[in-house]
Amino acid sequence: MDLELRHLRALCAIADAGSLGRAARILRYSQQAVSAQLQRIEGHFGEPLFERHASGVEPTRYGAEVLAQAREILERADTIGRRPADSASGARQVLRLAATNSPVLSGMVVRVRSRLPELALTVSSVYASSEIVERLEKGEVDAAIGVDYPGQELRHSAAMMHRGIVVEPTFVAVPAHHRVKRHMEVALADLADDAWFLTPDDGAGWPGVFYAACDEAGFTPAAVHEFLGDQLQLQNMIADGLGVSVVQATLRPIPGVLIKPLIGAPLWCRYLLVWRRDSVTDEVAETLFRSATASYRDLVARSPHFQAWASRTYGADGAHGAHGFGPAST
Asked: Rounded distance, CA 121 to CA 295, Å?
């Protein structure tokens, strides 16, 4: 068969949904039709692109490579025929983006630059969400990715707008030889005697929500090390048995590290897009949001431990999609 854009869109839908049934509903086809189409596409490539499990499907290593190329092609196809609004003058609109420690940033930036090539995008790293809001209020940045927590929603003036990207549970990273290594999910209290690596105050509620969850579980952390390094350095220390840490649910573990869900999901966080009304158009805001959610879907597709948790929590149909798994986002 000749490979077409619709085939690439079908592959991406299957990867994003995590099952043929959910992909069929997204594509508005029957499950049998999607299954037959996938078989034809895999026949074209000459090997399986997905592994089938009882809980759904996940890309094979080769399938992940094909998906990455498919998404790039689709992103480029979306920009065909688009003319920069200011091409005559040669000027480019500059968008100043700030972001906290968010896993969606890289994929989001790649998509924005592909979809809006006329936009000059600059990115600055800002850890504290409270500082992000302050910079937005002062007009030092135009848009940002921030974080907040259920019941402690990020506050800002009427000069800005925000939109939730995803509400996700917080998982834990433990050494591969840890006593809970065989547990499918871990009770927070099971880690009461461990040393913890925690990031500092983010001005939005962390680490207060963590200590509140520990208190609810009946313990005070035995030892806490404040840490604000890169994720690889953190994982190396965990692999060496120096402690455990709460981590983003889609984090990919290195050898020697296990990522585990917490029983009862006592910790949640929300990533959100915030922007200034006077410097970001509706089109740009929508592109930022769509790019961020697409980036998050990619992260989920590459996180079998997260997909497994979502399937157990929400049933055979898995997660609720890229916009939220827990408390409703706004």
From this structure: 17
